[in-house]
Amino acid sequence: MFENNRLCKLLNIKYPIFQGGMAWIGTAELASAVSNAGGLGIIGAGHMPPDLLRIEIQKTKKWTQKPFGVNIMLMSPFVKEVMQVVLDEKVPVITTGAGNPGEYIPALKEIGSKVIPVVASVALAKRLVRTGVDAVVAEGLESGGHIGEITTMSLVPQIVDAVDVPVIAAGGIGDARGMIAAFALGAVGVQMGTRFVLSTECIAHENYKKMVLKARDRSTVVTGRSTGHPVRVLSNRLTRKFQELEKGGASVAELEELGAGKLNLATHKGDVENGSVMIGQISGMLTEIKPVKQILEDIVSQVDATVNHVKINYK
User: Which of 43-47, 276-280, 302-306 is predicted with the least confidence, judged by mean pLDDT?
Assistant: First the structure.
């Protein structure tokens, strides 16, 4: 079905579907499963120390022979060491966030890696394309975790019009309808994070997954706008405390201290009231946990039916 897809050809993958590089839960288990199923699995490095990242990469290599990636947060205190690890391990695809990967691109290109930054604005996309990146992920504010200020529907076509590299749409995409919409906007692929949280291979705590299953359309909130690093999460005791402090004029240092370690508290320890349950707005449309392979096969199998539905409505 996707033999001529520009992204599939670029990365040698079967389906133009990325798994979002989610910190703490984008591990070798999930990344290898997505790659084996035909998409591009991505290890979320987050603030992971370099020795732990090397272990995750080596496990992924053991569990899949297919291309996979590592998402690197350029604000990580370990970014230089982490970059050295991906160079040593010759990781096929590097996605980046929270910064400009320009200084690392020559070395990554030398080992044959494809570099694909996540962007939330046209200006950033154009600037990073000039550094030689291979594609960009245009991520709308519907996504979970750290977000920008523009919706996917508005952002994707503007970036498509502004750059000449492949554009992958992200934010609010979890089924064939979202995928077809992304294609209609000019994207050549999609990135999904929230949908893969509710997979059997995702190591997120059972409480985390149960809370996502209970989510509705208005269950997510955005915290941290005053810090300059807004984050979309499910509403809970932590978010209410965070919002109370923000309204009271708390300092950035106070707010960052409140948020420190809270993602791990939710994903690994299962405290979904005092921890940070990062998830996207599509959580309200997800109703079951499935194996990764079934998630991908369900989406791909529904593409033709979705296109036919569009044609009927159009006529």
Answer: 302-306
Which pair of tokens denotes residue 215? 């989510």
Residue 243 token pair: 């919002």
Indicate if the alpha-carbon torsion angle 238, 242, 245, 251 is positive or negative.
positive
In a domain, 1, yes or no: no
d(CA 53, CA 311): 46
Strand partners of residue 222: 232
Q: Do 81 and 46 contact (CB within 8 A), yes or no? A: no
d(CA 72, CA 96): 5
273 & 295 share domain: no
Model confidence pLDDT, tens digit, residues 75-85: 888 889 999 99
Burial profile 88-109: b = 16 or more Cβ within 10 angstroms, e = fewer: ebebbbbbbbebebbebbeebe
Amino acid at 189: G
Residues 242 and 193 occupy one common structural domain = no
pLDDT digits (tens, 9 = 90+) for 4-47: 899 999 999 999 999 998 988 999 999 999 999 999 999 998 88
Question: DSSP assignment of 57-115, as one string?
Answer: HHHHHHH-SS-EEEEEETT-TTHHHHHHHHHHHT-SEEEEESS--GGGHHHHHHTT-EE
Structural domain span for residue 298: 9-203+283-314
